[in-house]
Amino acid sequence: MADYKTYLAASILTEEKAITYRLLSRALKVHVNAAKEMLYEFHKVQNSKRPGTIHATYLISGTIRAQATNGGAAKKDPDGDDYMQSSPFISSSMPQPEKDQRAADHLVLSISLVREEDLAQIRSEYEHINSIHVYSLMLHPLKDLQILSDVNRELLDLCASEDPLDSLSKYGTITNPNVRRRKAGATRPPSAPLPAQVKAQPAKPNPPEQKPAPKKEGPQGKPSTASEFFGKGKEKLKAKSTAADNNSSKESTPNPPTLKRESSSLMKSFAKAKPKLERKRTESSAVSPAISAAEDSPMKDVSDDEEENYVPPPSKVIVDSNRQTKKEKEAALRALMDDDDEDEPAAPTKPEEPEEGEEEAKEEPEPIEPKDEVAVSGGRRRGRRRVMQKKKIKDEDGYLGKLYMISSHVSY
Amino acid sequence: MAVSEEGNLLRGPSGDNHPSFPRASTSYVPQQTYALDKEKHYRQQFGDMYFLRLTKLKPAVEKVAEEAWDDFTIGRETVQRVERVLDVRQGNLCWVIGTIYIDMPLKPNILDDINKDHWISAPPPLEKYLSPRGEDIIMLEDESGRLRLIGSALATELLVTGCIVAVMGTENANGDFEVVDIKVPGLPSQPERWQQSSHPANGQSKDVDQDEDMDRAVPLSNGKKLAIVSGLGFSGTDASHSLDLNLLTEFLLGEALDPVTQENVSRISRLVIAGNSIAPEVDAVSHDTVGNTRKAAQRKYGYDSSAYNPTPMMHFDEFLATLLPSLPITLLPGYDDPANVSLPQQPIHSAMFPQSRTYGMIPSSDGAASQPGWLDTVTNPWEGEIEGWKVLGTGGQNVDDVYKYVESEDRLGMMEAMCKWRCCAPTAPDTLWSYPFQDNEPFVLNSCPHIFFVGSQPKFDTAMIEGPEGQMVRLITVPRFAETGEIVLVDSETLETSVVKFTVT
Known about the structure:
The complex is a heterodimer of chains A (412) and B (505). Chain A is of the alpha+beta class and 412 residues long. Chain A has a domain at 217-410. Chain A has 19 helices and 7 strands. Chain A has helices spanning 3-14, 21-28, 32-49, 66-69, 71-86, 88-91, 95-105, 119-125, 148-158, 164-171, 193-199, 232-242, 266-286, 289-296, 302-309, 316-343, 346-349, 356-363, 365-368; strands at residues 19-20, 55-64, 107-115, 126-138, 372-375, 384-394, 400-410. With 505 residues, chain B is an alpha/beta fold. Chain B is globular. Chain B folds into 2 domains: 47-183, CATH 2.40.50.430; 221-294 and 308-362 and 371-501, Purple Acid Phosphatase, chain A, domain 2 (4-Layer Sandwich), CATH 3.60.21. Chain B has helices at residues 47-69, 112-115, 153-156, 205-217, 242-253, 259-265, 282-290, 293-299, 311-323, 397-405, 411-421, 481-484, and strands at residues 28-31, 73-74, 77-78, 80-81, 93-103, 137-141, 146-150, 164-171, 177-183, 225-229, 268-274, 329-332, 375-377, 382-386, 389-394, 451-457, 461-466, 472-479, 486-491, 497-504.
């Protein structure tokens, strides 16, 4: 049971993430109610060591006092009160029963999510509180609570590999014995890459209970400038420096996670794209035909591209909240590159290999790896950037293989 | 202020065995009353709908009117029944049945579309068609002709275009019909509970009937609830209520709050989403109000995929997929949803839900009647039987449109009037877009529902109305969740309603 402290300390204090009880329950595979208690305990212990280190939000349910409940009625009341005040005889008694009637007319169960700071005030508005628990913990106080909805988005990714029907009771969700679902051939095309990613993260210095996937990016989670990270030289340097922090290394999947786009305007994307386009031209003139052919081939699968297109343009709130996590994601990306290098340690470290043919083949793609391509032809393709990475891999037996990494996204 | 002991989860890990509750189930029989054929034709005239409606409802009004006005005399004159509107003779006291038509200068006019090309900027959309200077003309029409109605009796009765009424009065020298009294069809007869579905508890129908009577007398709640939500408003640009939606999910899944609340939530046996799950796109709205979508269309040929933002639908799909393992859902489309815009709106296509469609209807292989889908995408309006109660629900367009015709702000009153007109969308096809029905007018209510809910309304309200034959109808206006954070719970035995309100401060 003490494991949760390690997890919470790592996530909240080190990574400065917001942790909700649901996320905790999914990460540790415990009942949500247990997770609520863990959050409370952690909050209490940490703040008793140093007050004000961790900020909590609470979820309260119950009935709110009559004055506070009826937003609509409250608007009317001032008029009524004014009117009544001119005739003081009834003023004290009249509005009261009306309100009571309204409240009695329909029972309202109010559920409020409040910051620690506002808790006392909101509590006083409640007539009766049915239940209260810690909803989330975070290192910094939240200006806009809506940011917490991103945490729930993360949760979706975390659970993507699980069959929801099996995991319900584990987390204390209400189970339904009558649920009907199509079985065979139940495909979920858009979310297909996600489970694969989850599986692809086994090796970590984390404690075993710590589920790796909270690190995982949601579809919106990638920095828009991801292509820059494919610049390999500086990357390796950085990767080494950050390797310690970054405990979730990712292996490359043939279809890397969709990249996040900042809400940038069309003009902006053009401004960015132009110089790169030129660079590409100069580069591609030097590229062997085989490589350019390889570049071209992915252009054909328009339908795939279309799906990639549909990555949601993130809301502003999300962008804000992701600013923090961006760093981690950069690190993850770098680690991803790092892994690839480790796959074939021979290539970069021993350039002086005797076989010349191989040597050349190896050398050639290296300089062009950081490659941005902008297809400007055709209105619909405008602004799509295609980042392609090519790798020559030699395995222990000396066989050569090619590894393509293609990711594309559009900015409009 | 006082927190009950059990509800307080502000405590250290207790290591207790936390319970997980099974969800209660209710019987559910959706009906296909408003489903259209796969092949739809739009070349017919709309006029047939009015005649169908008049033919269907004439006997009902006739009965009411005959009872009320039999041997009714003013002075020495006895009221005569007149078959057709054109047969009304000046000076004769008579009554006649027809369809109300209200001519309103502010009502959208098809000829405006031609004018539109000459507009510099379009007038803003109107909240009410009602003319402030009283230029509206109320008329009664049938297949023979029209008759202008005047008189103070009109002011006391809620009237909109398309409702079938009987009027009694006399034609004056101007050719106008001075109305003395108006009769509407009144509530249709109400089926017994458990008409379509069989009572789950005991098979013997006689016993059931007795139980029913007992229940009627003292309805006992078994705590089972039906949740109705409307106007979820998933948006691609506006994230201001995304956490409220999360709280709603957690609440319905029984993850939020304490074990006592969680157990109560486990008795919510079905979620009905009454329209407008997707927020209107801001751009799209400005287009619509200007009414000049044509210009954009002229420039671009074919489908412009860049104009489509899939994010709201994706989030909505995720929302459904999260809830579905635990909770069956009935999904009605609304005005802003990706379905056809004219009533009856057809179910949102399952291709819109890549994740949750696995819970959709399972096609039966051996020709047997297939069960309704766990995620049941249905029509708007929709009719079905939940736990034996006949339920009628709409996405809200019908009430919103009637609202434009009348001075009243009382939306429950309009719903009650609809029940009494026996027509759940009287203003279709005049100002409410509708499919041009030829052989059947499905908006006419053949039987009285037990629950009539309407989505996307400004605030929650509810009432129980009673008919002369003992009909009891629970009327509910379901507020827009995106604005109010409220969902409505209906008890499946007593039909009592309560509200759950989510706030994020």
